[in-house]
Amino acid sequence: MAINETLLVTPAAMTRIDRAAVDSGLDGFALMQSAGAHVAAVAVSQFPEMRRAVVMCGPGNNGGDGHVAARLLGQSGVHVVRYGRQPGPGGDAARAFDICPGPLHPLADWQPQAGDVIIDALFGAGLDRPVSQEIAGVIERAEESGTPVIAVDLPSGLSGRTGVPTGACFTARHTVTFAALKPGHLLMPGRALCGQTHLCDIGMPARLICSDDPVWRNHPGLYREALPAASSAQHKYSRGHLVVFSGPLISGGAARLSAMAGLRSGAGLVTLATPPIAVLLQATHLTAIMQRAIKDDADLTDWLNDKRISSFVIGPGFGDLGKARSFIRLLADTGCPVVLDADAITAFASCSEKLSNLFNDKLRLVLTPHEGEFRRLFPDLADDETLSKIDRARMAAKQLNAVIVYKGADTVIAAPDGRCAVNADAPPWLATAGSGDVLGGLIGGLLAQGMPPFEAACAGVAQHGEAGTRAGANMTAEDLVMEIGKPA
Ligand SMILES: NC(=O)C1=CN([C@@H]2O[C@H](COP(=O)(O)OP(=O)(O)OC[C@H]3O[C@@H](n4cnc5c(N)ncnc54)[C@H](O)[C@@H]3O)[C@@H](O)[C@H]2O)[C@H](O)CC1
Ligand SMILES: [K+]
């Protein structure tokens, strides 16, 4: 018996797991009993003031969980009313329906009363189309009346695969799900529509909770072994040398944030490659970070002969898109890992194929686009509504032979070989000016220390979130950068 806290299982894969469980001799009805019991337990523990449990049941097994919860709540003295559709004969849901006493009312009959708590057991993993007008009306009534909702498995109307509603959708205070999270529990807006998600053990064997195409919640198991290890034999060059490209006079702060983040991530040396006109200005702000005046391609080519450079970050506050493109071509020739952020991403708007040609030797390119930057580079992927954010990041990673860090409240990290993680642990106040510059530098610093790109990106995104949590609400990017590298 188990839950898997880090694997994300699509609804289709969960259906296969359910089937495998039954095929291997497990009692599907027992799983449903356990699922319904968890739902009832969440209802009584989270809403002790509940006067009436309004259990809305759909025609499938999600509805079956609802019938079980209704029976158990009734047995514990809670006033229960059931609405919805009777399941077809023969399955576990029909059995759950048969042993639950009391009538089943038509859904449209529900009139909100003070003290109602809705248990939404209309659709879960089996949702395959927008909900009907009738259900949309009930959802609207629930919202208008402020009736709290506990969703069984997923809020009805939410796609567990994409995290995007297929039409009208409940907004739940709590979601009770089983065995493993679905992508829709973490991807936005799904995560917000789920409220607090409770992952419950219903007796599914651990060996069955698996996937041949795994997507993970970002967690240390993905990168721990690749983290740079401190050793007394190290000197500053062996801890890596990160180069961050500065923009002109007016926008040098972004590169400074990246550089500071890289240094605090543990890189031995960080140098700002600065346009000559901005060198003096940058010098007044820098202490541990070094500088090199780089005016043009010739200066850069000359400097790149120094083999003691380990990685590059280019883009934050960079400004000149043409110069970004020609610098990136030169960086590609070094064979070193490169992080492209902000202007360096925009520089390849609608011509991402030029980028893929530059970095097709080995995996050493990391891109950190936010929503708008992703769209600029991959308009077709961004516009395809059948794709989830996970699908988009994976396809972009394959196209560019790069690790894609598709940023947001639900940052998705994808590698060209299909490895993929969703980060859902960053505090909302990370969405602040300069935060992305810090992330780019942090990943660049980990790359400088020899971490492979996917692991560096997963670790960087996690450490960025942890630093944000330590910095607290109302932090600035300057506060954030000072939290990097501190113990958790
Ligand atoms: N994960 C587990 O180990 C367990 C999960 N359980 C619960 O089972 C559901 C999934 O059940 P399933 O029967 O496959 O799907 P649903 O109940 O979500 O719905 C299927 C049913 O509804 C029809 N349908 C789909 N979308 C719509 C729509 N928009 N409008 C009308 N009808 C729709 C579809 O055609 C089917 O007829 C899972 O979520 C868990 O809650 C088990 O109980 C325990 C084990
Ligand atoms: K549901």
UniProtKB/TrEMBL annotation:
Binding site for K(+): 62, 120, 156
Residues noted as binding AMP in the record, renumbered to the chain: 407-411, 436
Cofactors: Mg(2+); K(+)
Binding locations of (6S)-NADPHX: 61-65, 124-130, 153, 254, 317, 370, 437
Keywords annotated in UniProt: ATP-binding, Isomerase, Lyase, Metal-binding, Multifunctional enzyme, NAD, NADP, Nucleotide-binding, Potassium
Reactions catalysed, as given in the entry: (6S)-NADPHX + ADP = AMP + phosphate + NADPH + H(+); (6R)-NADHX = (6S)-NADHX; (6S)-NADHX + ADP = AMP + phosphate + NADH + H(+); (6R)-NADPHX = (6S)-NADPHX
InterPro entries assigned to the protein according to its UniProt record, in alphabetical order: CARKD, Nnr, Ribokinase-like, YjeF_N_dom, YjeF_N_dom_sf
Domain YjeF C-terminal: 219-488
EC numbers on record: 4.2.1.136, 5.1.99.6
SUPFAM superfamilies in alphabetical order: Ribokinase-like (SSF53613), YjeF N-terminal domain-like (SSF64153)
Free-text remark on how the cofactor is bound: Binds 1 potassium ion per subunit.
Segments traversing the membrane: none
Domain YjeF N-terminal stretches: 14-210
Domain of life, per lineage: Bacteria
Biological function: Catalyzes the epimerization of the S- and R-forms of NAD(P)HX, a damaged form of NAD(P)H that is a result of enzymatic or heat-dependent hydration. This is a prerequisite for the S-specific NAD(P)H-hydrate dehydratase to allow the repair of both epimers of NAD(P)HX. Bifunctional enzyme that catalyzes the epimerization of the S- and R-forms of NAD(P)HX and the dehydration of the S-form of NAD(P)HX at the expense of ADP, which is converted to AMP. This allows the repair of both epimers of NAD(P)HX, a damaged form of NAD(P)H that is a result of enzymatic or heat-dependent hydration.
Matches recorded under NCBIfam families: yjeF_cterm, yjeF_nterm
Family: In the N-terminal section; belongs to the NnrE/AIBP family. Belongs to the NnrD/CARKD family.
Record text on subunit structure and interactions: Homotetramer.
UniProt protein name: Bifunctional NAD(P)H-hydrate repair enzyme
Organism of derivation: Hoeflea ulvae
Name of the coding gene: nnrE
